[in-house]
Design a protein that fits this description.
Layout (H helix, E strand, L loop, with lengths): L16 E2 L10 H17 L8 H13 L7 E4 L2 H10 L6 E5 L4 H8 L5 E5 L4 H4 L4 E7 L11 H11 L2 E5 L16 E5 L11 E5 L46 H17 L1 H21 L12 E5 L5 H6 L2 E2 L1 E3 L2 E5 L6 H11 L1
């Protein structure tokens, strides 16, 4: 393959061979510098800084631009699980929710435990075929955390449309490297501390165009003061919710969003399409090397995550050699992102060999 050098230049200086972005991404230098400056500012201006909303507003706009949705359709939060609880609360009593087997708990569990919800699980590959007239919601990850399988999002979207079913897509393992049509879904959540390279504590929730028309928004049961139409007048008593998706904002942690603004800016400069080509080329090079060693990686080419059975016991040895991967479900999981290179892949393969 054509040798690939890291993207991002001097933004990254990892002291390890870091192949674990599916667990947590590296923070760019610009983001770390911004957070340090915000911490220093807090010594004189308090823990909300001089402008609590500036970085959060900029991050909302940056995420919206990255995935082609209006900023007024994006809410800010700190947890995918909170977003899932909100989506669950928007469903009618007795609603059937369809999810893939083994999808990530932060997506699935708030739906499973919500009173009145009937959860039905099916294999990921059968998800579109299993949407039926009585299905109120289909919820799934664009990319599976366990092994990197990519869902057939177009097929699920079309099946849901045919049956009047709402869609809830988790792009935590996809945002930042996989080109996506976010506007095609009713609810889209993204934990930003992995491939989006943000500090932990940043999540985005995009609300589809069909929701909120004529002021008929789903109820914002977790709304606090930051969700008010006039934030300055929303500190005491019941509030008048914002007329945009900001009505679903959580009072955000200040420092993570200071870093997020910078991280999302870097991704925009590089471009998701460029990052996608880089990541998948490295992953395919790794797959080929594993196949030469008689191993059977999964999923098929196309994903930036490669999970391999039979070699999970190598994780400790790799860590001792300064190579960071992870083990999930008995699979050795390697994840390739913009700061990785062909040399990183070759080093991993040599250690496995």
């Amino acid at each position: 393959m054509h040798r690939r050098e890291p993207l991002g230049g001097a933004e990254f200086a990892a002291e390890t061979t870091y192949l674990n972005s599916a667990a947590s991404g590296l923070l760019p230098r610009r983001s770390a510098d911004a957070v340090r400056a915000a911490l220093e500012e807090s010594a004189s201006y308090g823990t909300m800084g001089r402008d609590y909303f500036a970085a959060a507003t900029a991050s909302r706009a940056a995420f919206a631009r990255l995935y082609g949705v209006p900023a007024e359709r994006v809410a800010l939060g700190s947890s995918v699980a909170v977003h899932s609880a909100f989506v669950a609360a928007s469903l009618p009593e007795g609603a059937e929710v369809l999810v893939p087997e083994g999808d990530f708990s932060s997506l699935v569990n708030p739906l499973a435990v919500h009173p009145g919800v009937r959860l039905r699980t099916v294999p990921l590959e059968a998800l579109a075929d299993e949407v039926r007239p009585g299905t109120a919601l289909v919820a799934f990850s664009a990319v599976q955390s366990l092994d990197g399988r990519i869902a057939d999002m177009a097929a699920v979207r079309e099946a849901a449309k045919a049956h009047g079913t709402r869609t809830y897509l988790d792009i935590t393992q996809a945002a930042g490297w996989l080109p996506l049509r976010v506007a095609d879904f009713d609810f889209v959540t993204a934990g930003a501390y992995k491939w989006l390279l943000c500090p932990r504590g940043v999540t985005f929730l995009a609300i589809g165009e069909d929701l909120g028309r004529d002021g008929q928004w789903p109820n914002a049961r977790h709304a606090g003061w930051v969700a008010g139409e006039d934030i300055g007048a929303s500190n005491y008593g019941p509030i008048l919710p914002a007329t945009t998706a900001r009505r679903y904002d959580e009072p955000h942690a200040h420092y993570p969003y200071v870093g997020a603004e910078q991280s999302l800016g870097l991704l925009a400069e590089l471009g998701v399409e460029t990052i996608h080509a880089h990541n998948t080329a490295l992953a395919d090079h790794y797959r080929a090397g594993l196949a030469e060693r008689g191993l059977l990686p999964r999923p098929a080419p196309g994903s930036a995550i490669v999970s391999t059975p039979g070699i999970a016991d190598a994780e400790h040895r790799l860590a001792e050699a300064g190579v960071r991967v992870s083990v999930r479900g008995g699979l050795l999981r390697a994840a390739f992102h913009l700061y990785n290179s062909t040399d990183d892949v070759d080093r991993l393969l040599s250690l496995l060999g």
